[in-house]
Amino acid sequence: MKWKWKDWKWNWFYNWNTFYKINALVLVLVVFMLGLSFMGYYYYRQAKVAMNDVYSSSLISVKLINEANANVRMIRSVNIELLSAPLDTSKKQNLLIQTTVLNGFIKESLDNYTPLAKEPFEVAKLAQVRDALQKYSDEWQKVVSLMDSGDKEEAYLYFFNNATKDLDEINTLLPELVDFSTQKAKSTIVRENLNFVRAEKFLFGFPLVAAILAVIIGALVARAIAKPLQIMLANVQGLASGNLRVTKIKTTSKDEAGQLAQAFNLMTDSLSDLVKEVSVSSADVAASAHQLLNITEQSSSASGQIGGAIAEVASGTEKQASAVNETVAAIEQINANIQMIAEAGQRVTAFTTKTTITTENGQKALTQAVEQMANISQGTQVVKGAINSLADGSEQIADIAHLISGINEQTNLLALNAAIEAARAGEQGRGFSVVAEEVRKLAEKAKVATGQITSLVVVNRDNINHAIAAMDAEEVHVNNGIKVVNTAGLGLNEILNMVNEVSEQVGGIASSIQQMAGGSQQIVSGIQHIGAVSQVTADQANTVSAAIDKFTASIDQINVSCQSLTDLAKDLQTGVSTFRI
Fold this sequence. Notes:
581 residues; mainly alpha; 9 helices
């Protein structure tokens, strides 16, 4: 198995700890969401400012100009009635007062319109209207003076020849201002429609790009976490089945997964070396035990020969010297064999000590692997909490989109009411009706955009749910890895127990060898004593016979110990054979 990323440009990312990788993904998602929220607010703010501008600069302007225009027409009608119809004094006075009041209404409308007239065209036309209105007021005062003098016909002619042209000029200028305000409102609506199209493209394209980037980054993070764990899980499973020939994990990353892979490689090497040493040592123990068994058989045969020699000594002292020499030679051979057995026992003791130390080191490596797997599991829990927080944020965005949708519906209803009121106003409300219809269309488009935002939030919520499911799956993999490593730890414990048993058996063999060495020395001393006191050969023959019996018992005990050592060596070889090196 090979774990190596080909694209070196991403090595800096793969060297990050798992905690930072997952936080980077969450940070990217947060940045995308903040960018989307900011742009939505920016275009919403632009639309709001444009609506306020249309209402304040255009609709109110048209309303004030139309009021002034209507009052101009009404003042003309009042003036004509005052000059042409026969009236009594009270009626005449009422019409004069009405003329003054209407003139005041016109000035009030123009005064209210003045702060809204910001364009040079509007300022110039407004100045012309004021000049014409002032001229009309001056001419009307002259007409009133003629009427007061009783020359009504002259007043009528003077009115039509002088005052009416000022009213006509006003009636011409005011519609021009209305047309200008209407065109300005239309240009504002066209501009905002273009802004809305741009906003629509952005609000559709930006979440799509954000979703694609989030999926790509999420896949990179998931692969950076899951890939090494999958490879490690396969190797650990092979190791648990006894396969020590698993390929080393090749990694260049410096995150937790890379550190765990390096620790796993060290553990595999240590365990492989231990099994090799145990296998070789068990074979040596078996060979030594077999050799020791042969030696005990030879010793048993020699003890039989010594017994025959003692019998011959009892029958005649003439053969005593020859028997003593044979016995000494046999005892020396036994002593040499005992020394060989002692050396083999020392080698076995040293090997068992080294095996115990190596097994304990393997247990420590497994403990470190379990701790690293636990750290990965904790990191997975942190990621799950962060993704759940992100899901809560998506729900809040959905609530805000629902609130905006309600505002759009209310705006649509207000636009419909405005259109109804404009229809009731007749010809004068036609321009306002057009604006109300445009407002309603904008509200409908905003409602559609809000629905798209809601759909995107739902898609984002599904993606977050998929991420949560993926993290749950990774958590299962991590737990499985912990179980496999624990299983390997149990296997090492069994090996350690077997090694300890072998050590105890070797200690028993060493003790038996020491006893056998002491017995051989006693036999040598006895044989030498037989040579020195040949005159009491008959009495000492019984003593030698007793010593031979003790020696035979020791040989039998050594034989039993050798058989036990052979069985233990076979058991150790059977246990080691389960591992494939």
